[in-house]
Design goal:
The complex is a heterodimer of chains A (548) and B (57). Chain A has 548 residues and is mostly helical. Chain A has helices at residues 6-30, 34-56, 73-101, 114-146, 154-176, 189-211, 220-239, 258-293, 300-314, 329-341, 343-356, 361-366, 368-390, 393-399, 403-432, 441-473, 486-523, 527-533, and strands at 242-244, 252-254. Helices cover 73% and strands 1% of the residues of chain A. Chain B has 57 residues and is mostly helical. The chains are: A mainly alpha (548), B mainly alpha (57). Chain A binds chain B through residues 67-70, 143-145, 147-149, 214-215, 217, 219-220, 287, 290-291, 294-297, 300-302, 304-305, 308-309, 312, 328, 330, 334, 545, 547-548, and chain B through 6, 10, 13, 21, 24-25, 28-29, 31-33, 40-49, 52, 54-57.
Chain lengths: 548, 57
């Protein structure tokens, strides 16, 4: 707020007033419909935000010297928001896991039934945690690799606050029973439209910063981040094309039906994995890993080849989610073929990351932050291999609809996405808040081992569970009927479900340790102040580069 | 009634689609390994390691 210029403060206030009007219209139009409740929520946020602006409106305006620094306040907010969402999202996830062990854990409430808290978990971890981490690090990386400050102070805040509002609408909506029933795209039409607005501002902010760059070459991370922003916009808009029952009603109906609907959803769904959960995080990896290891990426050329490979192959693979369905055979084969081809650029990226560490293995041994990134690259390699393998139709006949899929997803989400994010956050927190290091290196170590142990327990439990399930469902007796009933397979799952919930718990505890460590780091006195207070040392004066 | 017949799509993917991807793959490899680009890529890889603590100029 202190860095916002007078005009920006005025625009921010106008935006909050506009948001309040929108909220009010939703309350009026929605009446008894859950839409009205969301309107009230939006109104509340807008009023709160307006007062926030008004109370700071007459604070001193920022000087021109701010332009000599990067604008990191939005990144700081994004990192904190990501950690809050991950603690909440992992808690909900572990609750869902225990719910599958003991179905009474809904406590007889509608909002806590499996069908509602499961999307609360997925949205909180993917969009709340992953999304905030991506936005925060993208602003961070883009500014540094371009040697340029963000174009203004308002639009990054619009993106971050608007995005978090979307996440809150999504999560509260599920608990109220609002859902489109499209996996990973559950929020209803009004939240979807809001996200489009936020996303366009994000894209424009990114391009404006790139246009201001002083470094002529656009570093590879920015390509990955840009692919993430651009393709997610495209996926989100097409998959959410729908007609609401009325403007005062939360429910809408998709433009697609039948197998086209399924194909659109999985075109979106798998590309959400590709461009939300892979592309952006590769951008993160290509910046933070070399930076932390103090070595340039092993092969920059390979990173370009894998970028185009991933971008052009991934877009075709969604149909592997619909093997043995009404989807035409040739579309299934297309998805399968591209899934197998995808292994090439995926392993090129994973290999490139691991080879970067060649010569820095002693750092990996001593530094848990770098080890987070290293393990992430290993899991990225493992999961992409597994994914290509599972997309092969006969393999899919065993794995589909079983817990193997859940195991695969979590090997990717916990092992790759969360690990690279924790590594990047641990690297960037001291840089962002100008501290020497994290509050406790030992606690990073504790987090690392809890996260790794949790992931391994989780994934092994689900591999076993999935394969047992798949085999039980296809075992026939001599008379040609199924040997096991569905309930038999369910009973066989029970011990694995307990193991999975324990693995998830370990991962959750690790994340909470991480939250504490970050809180203590942020709370500690800044480096510059401490240096200044030790009398026999010269105060560190930032060297200002002469204006060119 | 469908917009595009199955046969048309198959023809499209086996001809234009196939060559589009082949040409694209070749173009990317040529771009990445073009000798003149070598220097700028090497410089780019090193560029993130230092000299980025504040915006330039």
């Amino acid at each position: 707020m202190a860095q916002l210029t007078r005009t920006e403060r005025q625009i921010a206030l106008a935006l909050f007033v506009g948001l309040a009007v929108a909220g009010l219209l939703m309350v009026a139009g929605g009446r008894a419909d859950p839409l009205g409740l969301h309107g009230a929520l939006i109104l509340g946020v807008a009023v709160f935000g307006s007062f926030g602006i008004i109370s700071k409106y007459y604070e001193p305006l920022p000087g021109a010297d701010r332009l000599r620094e990067y604008y990191d306040d939005p990144s700081k907010f994004g990192v904190v928001a990501a950690m809050v969402w991950v603690a909440f999202g992992l808690f909900m996830g572990d609750w869902v896991a225990w719910l599958l062990v003991n179905p009474d854990l809904t406590f007889d409430a509608a909002w806590s039934s499996f069908g509602r808290i499961r999307p609360v978990h997925t949205t909180s971890v993917i969009f709340g945690f992953g999304g905030n981490a991506l936005i925060a690090t993208s602003f961070y990386v883009m500014q540094r690799t371009s040697r340029a400050r963000l174009p203004d102070q308002l639009s990054p805040w619009f993106v971050l606050l608007g995005y978090n509002l979307f996440c809150i609408l999504a999560v509260t909506g599920y608990m109220l029973g609002i859902t489109q029933s499209r996996e990973y795209a559950e929020p209803e039409w009004y939240a979807d439209i809001w996200l489009v607005v936020v996303w366009i501002v994000y894209f424009v902010t990114y391009l404006r910063t790139l246009a201001r760059r002083k470094e002529p070459h656009i570093y590879v991370s920015n390509w990955y981040y840009l692919a993430f922003i651009l393709v997610v916009a495209m996926l989100h808009i097409v998959n959410n094309l729908a007609v609401p029952v009325s403007l005062g009603h939360a429910k809408s109906y998709s433009l697609f039906s039948g197998v086209q609907d399924a194909m659109t959803e999985w075109w979106y769904g798998h590309n959400a994995v590709a461009f939300f959960l892979t592309s952006g995080f590769l951008g993160m990896m290509y910046y933070f890993m070399p930076k932390r290891a103090g070595r340039p990426i092993f092969s920059y050329r390979l990173s370009i080849i894998s970028f185009w490979g991933i971008t052009f192959f991934y877009i075709w693979v969604g149909s592997h989610h619909l093997h043995y369905t009404a989807l035409p055979q040739w579309v299934q084969t297309l998805g399968m073929t591209f899934s197998v081809l995808l292994l090439v650029p995926s392993w090129a990226s994973a290999g490139n990351a691991l080879l970067t560490l060649n010569g820095a293995w002693h750092k990996v041994r001593d530094d848990a932050t770098l080890r987070f990134m290293m393990i992430a690259a290993v899991f990225y390699g493992l999961t992409t291999f597994e994914g290509s393998f599972m997309a092969i139709r006969p393999v899919n006949s065993l794995s589909h609809y079983t817990d193997w899929t859940i195991g695969h997803v979590h090997a990717g989400a916990l092992g790759w996405v969360a690990m690279i994010t924790f590594g990047s956050i641990y690297a960037s927190v001291p840089w962002l808040w100008k501290r020497d290091a994290m509050y406790s290196a030992r606690l990073v170590e504790v987090h690392f081992w809890l996260a790794l142990a949790g992931t391994i327990v989780y994934v092994f439990a689900m591999w076993n569970s999935g394969i047992v399930q798949g085999l039980m469902w296809r075992t026939y007796n001599e008379s040609g009927t199924l040997t096991y009933s569905f309930v038999d397979s369910l009973i066989a799952m029970h011990p694995y479900y307990i193991a999975r919930a324990v693995g998830g718990l370990l991962f959750l505890i690790g994340a909470l340790v991480g939250c504490y460590n970050m809180y203590m780091t942020i709370r500690a006195a800044p480096q510059r102040k401490r240096l200044a207070s030790t009398s026999d040392m010269p105060a560190a004066v930032p060297a200002i580069a002469p204006a060119e | 009634m469908t917009f595009i017949a199955h046969d048309t799509l198959v023809w499209l993917s086996k001809s234009i689609g196939l060559f589009y991807l082949l040409i694209l793959s070749a173009a990317v490899v040529v771009y990445a390994y073009w000798p003149a680009n070598r220097k700028s890529f090497e410089r780019a890889a090193k560029s993130i390691i230092e000299g980025e603590d504040r915006p330039w100029g």
